[in-house]
Amino acid sequence: MPVGQFSFRAMQVDLHTHTTCSDGKCTPAELVQKLQACGLRGLAITDHDTIAAWQEARPVADRLGIELIPGVELSVSMGRMRMHVLGYCFDPANERLNEQFATLQKQRKDRMFAILDRLNALGAPLDPADVLNRAGNGSVGRPHVAQALADAGHVTSYREAFRRYLHDEGPAYVPKPPFTAREGIALLHAAGGVAVLAHPGLGIQVDMITRLVELGLDGIETVHPCHTRVMTFEYEYLAEKLGLIQTGGSDYHGLHKDEARNLLRYSVPYDRLESMRRVAA
């Protein structure tokens, strides 16, 4: 690797990744090793509604010299609008935070059983133990159900599972119990962290972002694979206008071959992490 290229990567971080503790393919240890092989300086594992990856990933990151930032991706709502809020730099041992994560995990399991009941009535039965096993000790969700449907032969692919059964208006869809943006932001702040709106390019309008700022939102994810270059510039301008920190990352799940290049393409400068830490402090 050319020296200049290595120096550039050594000052970059990926602040949005997933592991087998939610809907990713890599274990926490494997993900840290993959980031180290890319030459990045640090990462945040932002699994859905859980920080189960932290305990496994931290010693591996320490050994490899990778800076590991506490992270999570919370599913929240504001009225009828659903969105994701990324949390960073919180205390992973915070009691209130972990109590909420335990509640969210139970709700996820209850929702999965309800989805499986609907699938059974639709003639596509699945073994609940198999679906839970796919999630391991992490967050069970629709992606695990979709893969189980494909493996059982009820559909021909993961995408067809969502198209036929699991999309938001699908016959097997079950909504999540409400957890509001106000509650999510307050939870992260109480644990010493910051709250960042994930991938606003997936349908979050400017007026909604402004309302989130009024609730205490600290930042927005300006760099993301779903954002065009123009969208990235627009969100950077909006962040500066509203006084928000800017983050970014690959949203790496490892489910598709072309995702690996996103680890470098959507990494962000280390000073984005420093900005987050100043706000958290």
Structure description:
With 281 residues, the chain is of the alpha/beta class. It folds into two domains: 3-94 and 179-280, TIM Barrel (Alpha-Beta Barrel), CATH 3.20.20; 100-166, Orthogonal Bundle (DNA polymerase, domain 1), CATH 1.10.150.650. The protein is built from twelve helices and nine strands. α6 (142-151) packs across α7. The protein is globular. The model is unreliable at 1-6 (pLDDT under 50).
Entry keywords:
TIM Barrel, single chain, 47% helix, alpha/beta, 281 residues, 5-stranded mixed sheet, DNA polymerase, domain 1, 4-stranded mixed sheet
Summarize the structure in short.
It is built from 12 helices and 9 strands. It is α/β, with parallel strands linked by helices and 281 residues long.
- Say what the CATH topology of the largest domain is: TIM Barrel
**CATH architecture designation of the largest domain:** Alpha-Beta Barrel
What is the H/E order?
HEHEHEEEHHHHHEHEHEHEH
Alpha-carbon distance between the two ends: 37 Å
Describe the sheet with the most strands. Answer: 5 strands, mixed
- Low-pLDDT runs: 1-6
- The value of Rg in angstroms is 19 Å
Physical arrangement of strands within the biggest beta sheet: 4-5-6-7-8
| CATH class type of the largest domain | Alpha Beta
> In DSSP terms, counting alpha (H) and pi (I) runs of 4 or more, how many helices?
12
> Structural class of the helix and strand makeup?
alpha/beta
Number of domains: 2
The oligomerization state is: single chain
**Total strands:** 9
Please give the share of residues in helix: 40-55%
Strand proportion:
15-25%
Question: What is the average per-residue confidence, as pLDDT, rounded to a whole number?
Answer: 93
